[in-house]
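Table S2 (text version). Query chain:
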Amino acid sequence: MIWFIVNSVSGNGKGQKVWKHVERLLLQKQIDYGVMFTEGPRHATEIARRLAKEKSASVIIAIGGDGTVHEVANGLAGSDIPLGSIPAGSGNDFARGLQIPKQSRQALEKALSGQKRKIDIVCINDRMFINVAGIGFDGQVAKVTNQARYKRWLNRLGLGNFCYIFSFFNVLFRYQPADVTMVIDEREHTFSRVWMIAVANIPFYGGGMKICPHAQCDDGLLDICVVHGISRWKLLTLFPRVFRGTHIYDDAVTTFTGRRLKILSSKPLPAHGDGEVLGETPLEMAVKQQGLYIV
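Corresponding structure-token output:
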């Protein structure tokens, strides 16, 4: 059976609206389905893990934003049940990176196509992510965004992509960079005044920013972007270039690829994965090649 996991409050209620449309399409097509609605943090993971254990689903389709996809993927990783996605969040970077249509009808058709393939996942301490992890300034921005009242209002106005930009300026003038040591595949790299580290499985995060423009979700590699040694003003002028992916050519940005990564810092740095807060440094990450089925 096809199962749907729906985050009704995603996108300030957009998840519920998208589900109602999808439900009508399913009835028109006379497709048997099951549906469960999330009730709080990590509930989607619990649902997906239970369905995978029971082997009662042929595919599980997440309706929500990147946070919902993140939770369902955490429940399905390592199983043979594929993840489908119908975007209904503020950023929808997973859908953008995997070229999943914005329109729910076309996204549903893609999820029901049965064309399974495998993508990489990234293990970070005891969790995993499938899009991008951000450490430092970026982790703080994600934390502020998740707690911000303006996120609800921007979603209501259909301007959810601007949530990250608002939070960026909220954090910019208070954040203090740190010294960082990274070990990438046994090679050590040290940086002073590190503002942020992004570790990517797909190019996009924050509502369409190409933080690691060359990232691919099936190459078995982490794409790593380090922003370091610059002033707040330079960071501010560098920021718009992230939307085109041209920031990586600046002297303040160093990029790497690797399979394993350890991050140590002079002070604890907040971290997020797929926009969900995942703790602080020190952190260890490793790519698990072809760890998740998707449709």
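Notes on Table S2: DSSP finds nine helices and 17 strands in the chain. Residues 127-290 form a domain with the Tumour Suppressor Smad4 fold (CATH 2.60.200.40).
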